[in-house]
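Quick start: read one record
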Amino acid sequence: PAGVGISGIVDNADGTFTVNLTNGSSFTTDNLTGPTMPVIQSLSVSDIPAKPGTAVTAAVAAQSAAGLALTYSWTVSAGWTIAGGADSSIVSITAPAAYAASGSAIVTVTDSKSRTATGTMSLSTERNLAPIINSIWTSGNPVLRGETIDVFCSAADPNGDTVTHQWSVPP
C-alpha cells in the first residue's frame, strides 16, 4: 500500500520469506526478485511555471521489471488540457489562460499484464507581476506656478502584458 515500507524480512528456512511491513502487516513469499509491476524512473515537466495559455511538455521514463510492453495514460486537473500525446510517454499540456493557476498531471503506466504504476507532477502558471516604472521625467524644470509641463513615464511589465498609464494631479 502507498506510504507503507518494509520493516524487515525473515528467512523461514523452507524456501519462503516473511516480509514485515511498517504498518504492522506481513506477507509470505518465495520470490524476492523485486517488483514485477512497471517502475517509474523519472517524471519531468518543462517550462513551469508556464505562461498562461501556453503549452508545456511532461514526460515519464518507465520500465517493466519483467520486460513487458508498457502503455501510458495521462489526465490533468480541470482548466488544464491535453493537447497531444495522451497515450505516450511524452505529453503536451496547455495551461489555463489565467495567472497563478495550479493543478497536476497524472500518468498511469500499465504493462501487458495490466499491472500499473502512477506518477503525479505539479503544474502551475506564473504569477501576475506588477509593472515596473523605469523612469519618469518632465519637459522642463523648475515648473513655475500656472505653467504647463509634459510628464513622461517609461514602464514595462515583467509578464509582457500591455502597460497602460493613468495620471492624476493632487488638488
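The longest strand covers residues 55-64.
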